[in-house]
Specification:
89 residues, alpha+beta, 2 helices, elongated
């Protein structure tokens, strides 16, 4: 259903949308979700384990890993889209 054409447009159903806009929107949504989810999980772990050293390290590490993973996924999607466009040029 999705096809990237040589004119830098992403064909979605019957309408065309710029690939840069779509990948930017996906990146923003994934990055924001990662930061919010990472903060929530990290804060939850700190609240659960206490504000001691172990709680802080576990909360910050887990929250950072969640945020990093979703941001990395956004970068991967952007890279694949750019590589596909270079292949058609």
């Amino acid at each position: 259903m999705l096809r990237i054409s040589a004119v830098n447009l992403l064909l979605v159903g019957v309408s065309t949308v710029g690939v840069g806009f779509v990948t930017g929107l996906i990146g923003f949504l994934l990055g924001t979700t990662g930061v919010v989810l990472g903060f929530g999980v990290g804060f939850g772990l700190i609240s659960l384990l206490g504000p001691g050293t172990f709680g802080l390290i576990a909360g910050i590490t887990t929250g950072g890993a969640i945020a990093f993973g979703l941001i990395l996924l956004a970068v991967l999607i952007y890279s694949v889209a750019c590589a596909a466009l270079r292949g058609f040029a």
